[in-house]
Amino acid sequence: MSTPLTLYRPALAVGRDAQALHRATMPEFSGWLEHTASAGGCSRPIRLTGTIAAVATDTGRITSRLHTDELPDRALYKACGNRRESQCPDCAWVYQGDAYQVVRCGLTGGKGVPDSVGRHPVVFATFTAPSFGAVHRRHVPSHTCFTRQRCDCRPAPCRARSNAGTCPHGQPAACFARHDADDPQLGQPLCLDCYDHAHQVVWNYFSGELWRRTKQAIERHLAVLCRQRGIPKVRIVTASGKVRWVPPVRVSHGKVAEMQRRAAVHFHVLLRLDGVDFDDPDALVPPPAGVTVDDLEAAVHAAARQIAVTTPPHPDQQSGWVVAWGEQVDVRRINSAGGELTDSKVAAYLAKYATKATEATGHSFTRLTPATINDYADPEGDHLARLIDACWHLGRPTGADTASGAATADDRQDGLDTRFNVYAGLRRWAHMIGFGGHFLTKARRYSVTFGLLRATRTTYRRTEDNGMADTITVGTLTYVGAGWLSDGDALLANTAAQERRESRRVGREELAHEAWLIGAAA
User: How many helices and strands, by DSSP H and E, does the chain display?
Assistant: First the structure.
């Protein structure tokens, strides 16, 4: 066993630069950097203590054992794994890379997905929420900028109406301002009292069910189309020996949810049209020749117009709320002739939003509890405060007082049973303005999984760095804390991680340039 390293305990009064200098001058600094490399860029790594053993896979014999007391800082550092860029940029960077691979492989193949999927019809659809009231917006009639991400075009007036007058609450119903892209007014209602905050949070809450029914409607539309064109169903035999007749096409999707500035979610969805092989129902095969990308696009538009969800009754709305898509349903084709959307652009676009949450609204919340809700919810407050209040009030226990439309302090603090209230989840997801779904989901057959990518990366590190392909690591570890021991440690570890990422980026660019030179010479 190696000699235990000295535990670094910086004084609280020492500044960050002095802490970093003190750590860098210690004899064990290089070993500490290597030890923290796996979590070097993490903003708040997890510290674990215990025993790590290497076990031979063929015999089950323990080949080596190490206690964390023999490691620098007497702890094992593990990255937090948070996907949110606002919480941990480094872990979000890793998650974004995995999300890119998940989306891209469903478009072009690779990592176990056949390359033939690149020839399947694919559309990129955007489903938006309906209007719950007039909000400030930025509208550019015609773009002349080079890239939309840094658009500097002159926008049109927000809501220019010569005869709009005022709303019932005395607020102007028009806005003649030309808002900049970073204007804090964007997404804010023109009149907070006119805006239907309750309907918006209910829409966010049931948007997952709306998407599920929309996906079913798309597949039903295509199945009817196949029947009309004489394309027969496919006979398959299940594992239990039961014979089933299924439509000859299926739709696989990859979906990202994006929170708009008005705090309503909308969905960016990749829809790929696949066929069904009667010999291997799980195989990814092209659709029948009689079904094209035009049919897939028409099915999306038809489903978006037809599908609506009526929510269960609520004491505040006995007839429930209608949850349907907004009028703006955009459908574009991927890799089409003359089109601006390519598989790499779409994959990068969706991967970027997979690391976001409510940051677009200007705020990012943690999960709210009865002890903290009064700090954020206010029925007379700003837009977000009213939305959070609507979540908490609509998700109240059924035995709570429903005479008032606003959540009271007693209503927020109650501890009654909420298991039989279908809207109870609104309280759980009040920090997400009612949206409780994951920000990146996909169909089972669409592409690879995050778990497979992480397992492959773990195997590569074990065999490449340690040469331990014939062993597995078994840890008996206990949580002892989170975060670096000092701001100086965080500075050194994050700087080293940034340098490693930059060197990998430069290496990838060099390899791509070398491949381009070889191709040009050929």
Answer: 11, 13
